[in-house]
Request: fold
Amino acid sequence: MQTARFFIGQIVRHRVYPFRGVIFDVDPVFDNTDEWYDSIPAEVRPRKDQPFYHLFAENAETEYVAYCSEQNLVPDESGQPVRHPQIAEIFDGPVDGAYRLRSPNHN
Reply:
């Protein structure tokens, strides 16, 4: 099994599609439904034996939660914060280009 290249709180962007987001969870291998997987066009369908990331994501129009394979993500070097409304529930920041998990006693 491969080690995840990205970390929780890191800002990443999709290699092909115009969206970016903050990682809030990592699955060591694919852990979603077959229906979800089969809905991806075959020519861009990722391998299942790699880390998959849960993102608080945004594109030009909206904010949403995305599930992305490691092969389709690259670090986001823009330095811009991500505007997803759920980020503040679990993260502080961004600080030095990444978000930090909030401490449990943070009010």
Observations:
- Strands lie at 11-14, 20-27, 52-58, 63-69, 73-75, 91-95, 98-101.
